Amino acid sequence: MIEAVLFDLDGTLADTAPDLGGALNRLLIEQGRSTVDMAHARKLTSSGARGMIQAGFGITPEHPEYSQLQIRFLDLYEEAVCVDTRLFAGMAELLDELESRRMKWGIVTNKATRFTLPLVETLGVRTRAACVVSGDTTSRLKPAPDSLLHASREIGIPPPNCLYVGDDLRDIQAARAAGMPVLAAAYGYLGDGDQPERWGADALIATPLEILNYLA
Questions:
Q1: Which of 10, 15, 23, 30 could lock 76 by a disulfide, CB 3.0 to 4.6 Å apart?
Q2: Domain 4-15+85-214 belongs in CATH node 1.10.3720.10
Q3: DSSP letters along the chain, please?
Q4: Strands 132-133 and 14-15
Q5: What band does 43 get if pLDDT is binned at 50, 70 and 90?
Q6: Residue 14 predicted with pLDDT over 70
Q7: Active site residues
Q8: Alpha carbons 171 and 81: distance in angstroms, whole number
Q9: Does the model's pTM come out above 0.85?
Q10: How far apart are CA 216 and CA 213, in angstroms?
């Protein structure tokens, strides 16, 4: 029986692409480059700074210029971390329904604490969440199961009774490794060229409210 729902943040709980993309375009302008179309950058949003820099500059972490671009990108993002970010349509209603059922819910993200906490505070969900586990809360990021197992211990509910919801292959892999049932959020970012129906999730959901169908 599902007793709690845990959410990835970027692309699952909230649409953070506008602010991540905004930071990317400010960085591109600083570097004398043309800005990118947000539709192009959006699908790489779940990969954070790595995905954004790849979208804007076409380079990976192995490139000698990557480190400095990453540092500046993160500084720019921190300056405006929750300006145009919003909960996905239907998410506010879902959280209200979970709380009306006295069901715990929380956030497990690879996003660093310096961005996660101000963001969820501005969205008005920090004190409502039973846990907020960031990318630097544990020693390993998803797809390792560490952060999900940490969340399970923090809220006092065994992994098999926690439903995880995410929009990236790493989310499904982490949940499987943690022994949690898992849904893939087809309304999210889904990565570049990935096929979520092949990720091995228990189901794909098109809207947040569909999660209610899997709580029995």
A1: 23
A2: no
A3: ---EEEE-TBTTTEE-HHHHHHHHHHHHHHTT-----HHHHHTTGGGHHHHHHHHHH---TTSTTHHHHHHHHHHHHHHTTTSS-EEPTTHHHHHHHHHHTT-EEEEE-SS-HHHHHHHHHHHT-TTTSS-EE-TTTSSS-TTSSHHHHHHHHHHT--GGGEEEEESSHHHHHHHHHHT--EEEETTS---SS--GGGS--SEEESSGGGGGGG--
A4: unpaired
A5: confident
A6: yes
A7: 8, 10
A8: 22
A9: yes
A10: 7
Where does the pLDDT of residue 144 fall: very low under 50, low under 70, confident under 90, or very high at 90 and above?
very high
Domain coordinates of the chain in residue numbers? Answer: 4-15+85-214, 17-79
Reading the block at residue 144, the tokens are: 């390792």
Local confidence band at 40 (pLDDT 50, 70, 90 cut-offs): confident
Task: Give the tokens for residue 3.
Answer: 């007793």
Interatomic CA distance for residues 215 and 206, integer angstroms? 16
Checking if the pLDDT of 39 tops 80, the result is: yes
